[in-house]
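All the exercises in this workshop are built on plain-text protein records. Sequence and backbone structure share a record, each on its own labelled line. The question running through the whole workshop is how a given chain folds. The record below serves as our worked example for the rest of this section.
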Amino acid sequence: MTAAARPSPEPLVSICMPAFHADAWIGDAIESALAQTWQNFELIVVDDASSDATLAVARSYSDPRLRVEANPRNLGQARNHNRAVELSSGAYVKFLHADDRLAPDCLEAMVALVEEDPGIGLVFSAREVVAESDDELAWSAEYADLHERFCGLARINDGRFLFDQLVDAGLEDNWIGEPSAVLVTRRALHEAGGFNVRVRQVLDLDLWLRIMIGHRVGFIDRPLCTYRRHAGSVSAVNRRSEGGWLDRLWLFEGLLAAGTPRRAHIKRLRREALYRATRAQARRFARGRFDTELPAYLRRRALARPGGAG
C-alpha cells in the first residue's frame, strides 16, 4: 500500500451506494468496494425503505469504512442518490449501485487520473455489462460499448467537446455510462446542483451533461466496473411503467438553466420532445389514463419566464 493509499480520518473518496430492493446483489457490491486497492475511502450505503432484506444484508458487514443509513420512507431514486452524497465527506464521490460491482483497482485508477488535472470534474471508464436474462442480451450487445461513439475520446478531454457530440447526436443515449462507471469531484457535483429530482430514467445523463459544460472529463479505456442488467432494477421498472416519459423535457430545462453553450440547439430538441410528449399524452388518454405531469410541466414552464413558454 502506498502512503497516499493509507486510511486517514478524512477519506479522500466517498463511495456512495443508494440501494432499493437489492438484497440479491448488495453483498457483492459492498464486498467489491471494501476490496479496493486504494484504501483512503468511506462507503456510504443508504437504503430507500426497501421491503426486502437489503438493509439487513448491508448491516451484516462490519468495517470501519462502512456506514449504513435507512430512509424512514421511500425518497425515490434521485433524492436517495442526493442523500447518499449529503451524508458523505470525500473530495471525490464514486458512485456504486447496489446491484453492480467495482474492479479492485477502480478507485486507484480513477483517483490517479482525476489528480492529474485540477480542471477534471468527472472521470468515467469502460464497463462490463452482465445480462441476467435473455431479454437483456440484445440491449447488452447494443449498449455495452457506448463510449466508442465519441470521436477523439482521450485520457483527458474538454468537457464541451464531448458535450457537443452528445448534443449533435440528439442526446438520445448515455455515452458516459451509469453511475457505477463514474467518479466526480465534490466541487463539480456542487456546482451542477446534484441529481435532478424531476428526472427518473436518465438522471445520470442529466447530471453528467451539466458537469461537462464547465469541466474537463477523464476517461479510462478498460472496464473498472460491472453493470448488471436485470428485470428488477429501478431502471427496468421505470421502463415498464413509462415512469420517465417526461425526462427529456426536464433534462433540457436543466441544461438551459445551467447556461448551456448550445442554447438554440437545445431549444430545438426541447420542441421536438414536447411534440412527442404531447402525442404520448394523447395515446395515454385514449387508453383511459390521464396524467397531470405534462400539464404541470407546461404550467411551470409558462410561469418561469415572462410572456409564457417559447
Residues 1-7, 306-310 have pLDDT under 50 and may be disordered. The first strand starts at residue 13 and ends at 19.
